[in-house]
Automatic annotation (TrEMBL):
PANTHER family: SUCROSE-PHOSPHATASE 2-RELATED. Its EC number is 3.1.3.24. The keyword Coiled coil does not apply. Residues 9-260 form the Sucrose phosphatase-like domain. It catalyses: sucrose 6(F)-phosphate + H2O = sucrose + phosphate. SUPFAM superfamilies: HAD-like, NTF2-like. The keyword Transmembrane does not apply. Residues 283-412 form the Sucrose-phosphatase C-terminal domain. This is Sucrose-phosphatase. Signal peptide: none annotated. Belongs to the sucrose phosphatase family. Catalyzes the final step of sucrose synthesis. Homodimer.
């Protein structure tokens, strides 16, 4: 990744459904806990990679449904597509590699002879992936016979069964594990091999991730039978692969702590901002803490106290300015005063605030420019804005932390708020 000039401190490579994203958690708490941990402690010098069986279409759909961060790299369609950055630029070298001994037309022709196979939706059929549903009791026999037939036709393919129903046919060189190995080889050639890599998964198509040498692995507590069976047969004595006791993203956080890969306490598990400051004088941590406080204030999860507001005012520069996404300017201190009237206005409601892509840059001896996207979700409505904050810290020994000098927000395309009066910071 061009964003990092040297090796990533940590690279997390995570499956999405039932690993990073818990579809049985309507509040998305484990995902939001991970988000806060990543943005506060890792984003600026680490890499986040999503590795999913979803096609680009279904991946983008999931991003609209869940409060997901923006990854640095996206591996989709069971390791057959690799893209980079916000623009999701494809890796053409990976495409050329997968074209070897692969003919999608032959795969389609041979699979049409199996009544046991039901073709998945058109969005899930990709240049290097043909996907079906198959009943669990028929899966192994279909895999065996189909593999033999395709081999006779001169193809070198891989057939992956996962989730108790999904059967994917890929080029032999494809798959989540091979995509990860390709990335690691690429980073090594650039002299940017990550210091540590953590692979995270829950199903059969994640097994390959844990077979890459020197990679730590976590199977979340809700891992499916086929992955647990693979582990028992192939990696039960590997101390670098653990079966977490926590579900989904909480299991990923648990693994970070278990392997001592870095800080593993999410800011969402810390509740004392702004009454007392932790000894973490980091601009990214400051941003995450502040917006968590705003969420808790509106959900009435912190005390409605004048002392708390006074402490917030103490963080604001006397001449600090906030520019609202609508273009309206007001002083930061006036914004704090406005918080009084919205205390508890989201109490008992599904209201969450999170930040994404928090990237600080030091622009002076005591000044930081921090850019990020700030999101609010209330029920089904979601609003987002690009945010720029200037923070100052004249004396690092002073315990009060950073001073907020300037905040400027603009609506992200298509997600602006209709009611500007409800938007705070």
């Amino acid at each position: 990744m061009d964003r990092l000039k040297s090796s990533a401190r940590l690279m997390i490579v995570s499956d999405l459904d039932h690993t990073m994203v818990d579809h049985h958690d309507p509040e998305n708490l484990s995902l939001l806990r991970f988000n806060a941990l990543w943005e506060a402690n890792y984003r600026y010098d680490s890499l986040l990679v999503f590795s999913t069986g979803r096609s680009p279409t279904l991946y983008k759909q999931l991003r609209k449904e869940k409060p997901m961060l923006t990854p640095d790299i996206t591996i989709m369609s069971v390791g057959t597509e690799i893209t980079y950055g916000n623009s999701m630029m494809p890796d053409n070298g990976w495409v050329e590699f997968l074209n070897q001994k692969w003919d999608r037309n032959i795969v389609t022709e041979e699979t049409s002879k199996f009544n046991e196979l039901t073709l998945q939706s058109e969005t899930e059929q990709r240049p290097h992936k043909v996907s079906f549903y198959v009943q669990k009791d028929k899966a192994q026999e279909v895999k065996k016979v189909l593999s033999e037939r395709l081999e006779k036709r001169g193809l070198d393919v891989k057939i992956i069964y996962s989730g108790g129903m999904d059967l994917d046919i890929l080029p032999q060189g494809a798959g989540k594990g091979q995509a990860l190995a390709y990335l690691l080889k690429k980073f090594k050639a650039e002299g940017k091999l990550p210091n540590n890599t953590l692979a995270c998964g829950d199903s059969g198509n994640d097994a390959e991730l844990f077979s890459i040498p020197e990679v730590y692995g976590v199977m979340v507590s809700n891992a499916q039978e086929e992955l647990l069976q693979w582990h028992a047969e192939n990696a039960k004595d590997n101390p670098k692969v653990i079966h977490a006791t926590e579900r989904c993203a909480a299991g990923i956080i648990q693994a970070i702590g278990h392997f001592k890969l870095g800080r593993s306490t999410s800011p969402r598990d810390v509740t004392d901002f702004p009454d007392s400051k932790l000894e973490i004088l980091d601009p990214a941590y400051e941003i995450v803490e502040f917006y968590l406080f705003l969420e808790r204030w509106r959900r009435a999860e912190v005390e409605n106290s004048e002392l708390g507001l006074a402490n917030l005012k103490a963080l604001c520069h006397p001449s600090g300015v906030f520019i609202h996404p609508s273009g309206v300017e007001q002083s930061l201190c006036d914004c704090i005063n406005l918080l009084r009237r919205c205390y508890g206005d989201k109490q008992g409601k599904q209201f969450r605030v999170w930040v994404d892509q928090v990237l600080p840059a030091q622009i002076g001896s005591d000044t930081w420019l921090v850019k990020f996207n700030k999101w609010e979700q209330s029920g089904e409505e979601r609003h987002g804005c690009m945010t720029t904050v200037i923070l100052s810290k004249e004396d690092a020994s002073v315990s009060k932390g950073f001073t907020w000098v300037h905040v400027h927000q603009t609506w992200l395309d298509g997600v602006g708020s209709k009611d500007h009066t409800t938007w705070l910071f």
